[in-house]
Design brief:
Layout (H helix, E strand, L loop, with lengths): L1 E2 L7 E8 L4 H6 L5 H24 L5 E4 L1 H6 L1 H9 L3 E4 L12 H18 L6 E2 L10 H7 L4 E2 L15 E2 L7 E2 L6 E2 L8 H5 L12 H18 L3 E7 L1 H4 L2 H15 L4 E3 L2 H5 L2 E2 L2
Parallel strand pairs: 2-3, 2-10, 2-11, 3-4, 5-6, 6-9
Antiparallel strand pairs: 1-12, 7-8
Helix pairs in contact: 2-4, 8-10
């Protein structure tokens, strides 16, 4: 089982833009003061145009993991992403903390999310990214039930897609795995995410980290994957309200320019990468 990238391509690079806007503050952190919400507004009103311009200049198509709340709150900015031809993936209803949801609530929010995708995108999403980068015991089965093809929330590999398995935790006897899911997992990593490094949240996340260190870490991942994992995928996660700050945009463009200089680099949305997967 492996990816079969286009001829001449060595490594797939997915840039996943998580367009959380207000919802990450409200949902994940329980913060809804004007100051926090204004940071989400910056992501919509400043970050989205900056990123769309950057991706256009490099002719890169990306996957925007977007909560339904963002589609409703910043509809014009969201429509500009769709009109630019980027993929839209599910990213929850209001950036809900998935592991804390009760079964009925998780199902209801999933149904609402899909309903709003059909309204604002015109079709159901092929892929899902958990707002919490975590699951409940039923999330994987819900993704299967609702017809998702891929997920990008888990961390069981680094550069190789895989089929995740449900885990029954055992203490003295060891944990056991269930059968592999038909869902294809594109692994993520906190090391490849701009939000923990950069976003200052008093008492919750120190943020304010060095953008040079962050982009060096991204570059190191790219270099290793390019040299040692041919046919793999590098999934980078960025947030418009974070990556689009001036100092980060400078480093981000430098990183994209560096990766694009390698002839085997294939920038693609996750569904396009999914379509090269072969069960052989």
């Amino acid at each position: 089982m492996s990816l079969h990238l286009p001829d001449g391509k060595t490594l797939a690079v997915s840039i996943g833009a998580d367009f959380d806007a207000h919802s990450v503050w409200m949902g994940t952190f329980g913060l809804s003061s004007p100051s926090y919400l204004s940071r989400g507004e910056f992501g919509a009103e400043v970050g989205v145009p900056r990123l769309l311009n950057l991706f256009s200049r490099y002719d890169i198509t990306t996957t925007w993991c977007t909560p339904a709340h963002t589609m409703q709150t910043f509809t014009e900015r969201f429509e500009s992403i769709v009109e630019a031809g980027h993929e839209i993936a599910a990213h929850g209803c209001w950036h809900e903390p998935v592991p804390n949801l009760e079964g009925d609530q998780e199902r209801r929010l999933m149904e609402k999310t899909l309903e709003l995708h059909e309204k604002y995108v015109g079709r159901r999403p092929r892929g899902y990214r958990s707002p919490a980068w975590d699951f409940t015991e039923q999330t994987l089965s819900l993704l299967e039930e609702f017809g998702f093809e891929w997920d990008s929330s888990l961390m069981g590999r680094d550069f190789e897609p895989y089929h995740p398995r449900p885990v029954t935790v055992g203490w003295e006897e060891g944990s056991t795995f269930g059968p592999p899911s038909p869902i294809l997992e594109f692994p993520v990593s906190w090391f490849l995410d701009d939000f923990p490094v950069a976003e200052y949240i008093p008492g919750k996340n120190p943020g304010l980290g060095s953008s040079e260190v962050m982009f060096q870490r991204f570059k190191d991942h790219f270099d290793y994957a390019y040299q040692h994992v041919p046919g793999g995928v590098l999934a980078i996660t960025v947030h418009p309200q974070t990556i689009a700050r001036a100092h980060n945009m400078i480093g981000f463009e430098r990183l994209i320019d560096y990766m694009a200089s390698f002839p085997g680099t294939w920038f693609a949305p996750l569904s396009a990468i999914h379509d090269t997967w072969g069960e052989d």
